[in-house]
Amino acid sequence: MIQSNEFTAAYFEQHNFLSEKDREKLLEMAQIVTYPMNKIVLHRGEQISQVGIILKGLIRVYDKNNKTVWLAYENQPYGSMEILGLHRPSTVTYETLEETTMFLLNYTELENAIIKYPNIGRLLLMYWKNTAMSIYGHFYSFLTLTPEERYLQLLQQNSRLILRVKSKDLATYLGMHPVSLSRLKKRYFIHNK
Q1: How far apart are CA 180 and CA 101, in angstroms?
Q2: This protein's superkingdom (predicted)?
Q3: For residue 138, how many other CB atoms are within 10 A of its CB?
Q4: Domain range spanning residue 173?
Q5: Tens digits of per-residue pLDDT, 25-84?
Q6: Could you tell me if 10 and 73 lie in one domain?
């Protein structure tokens, strides 16, 4: 079992609605897992039963054409809404771009715990909402912003991410050609150092 102070200090302290019993139950179910860089943690076509929080590291999610559809990093949820919500195999692959440490929980155990621990349900709902809103925001940016505007938005919101992801992967995430991304980096990022 994980040490209570280690787990709660890393993430759950900020959720003051969790009682001591809620925290104990989460700790009982949780495990800390560290994956090496470039490790595929979920292959396309597989199913998983785990969800979690990325404590440290970066995960790239990409489709069958190797296009980056999502980047998950510190304090973000890990898990496939497609698998957990629709009960079908993943259509994307999850790969660590850096050594990645996560708090993992079995999703079925988590759902079952909701009956006796309703605040865990509240926490789970919060994660689902945050994940859905992040996905919606990224999708909506493709409808309303140019690739350059998406780059500038990322530069403003999380400029470190630009340095952590390979240019070809970042370019597909932003919906542009790697050469265009290189030009934008030179124009905005390098000159603003």
Answers
A1: 33
A2: Bacteria
A3: 18
A4: 145-193
A5: 988 998 989 999 999 999 999 988 888 889 899 999 999 999 999 999 988 888 877 777
A6: yes
Q: Is the dihedral of CA 109, 110, 113, 114 positive or negative?
A: negative
Q: Which tens digit of pLDDT belongs to each residue from 70-101?
A: 999 988 888 877 777 777 888 999 999 999 99
User: Which position has the token pair 């990093």?
Assistant: 73
Strand pairing partners for 71? 60
Any idea which residue has 């996905």 for tokens? 135
Whether 22 and 117 map to the same domain: the answer is yes
E strands within 74-158? 77-78, 93-96, 100-106
Q: Please work out, in degrees rounded to the nearest 5, the angle formed at the alpha carbon of residue 86 by the alpha carbons of 80 and 89.
A: 60
| Residue 20 structure tokens | 């001591």
Cα dihedral: 150, 155, 160, 164 (round 10): 40
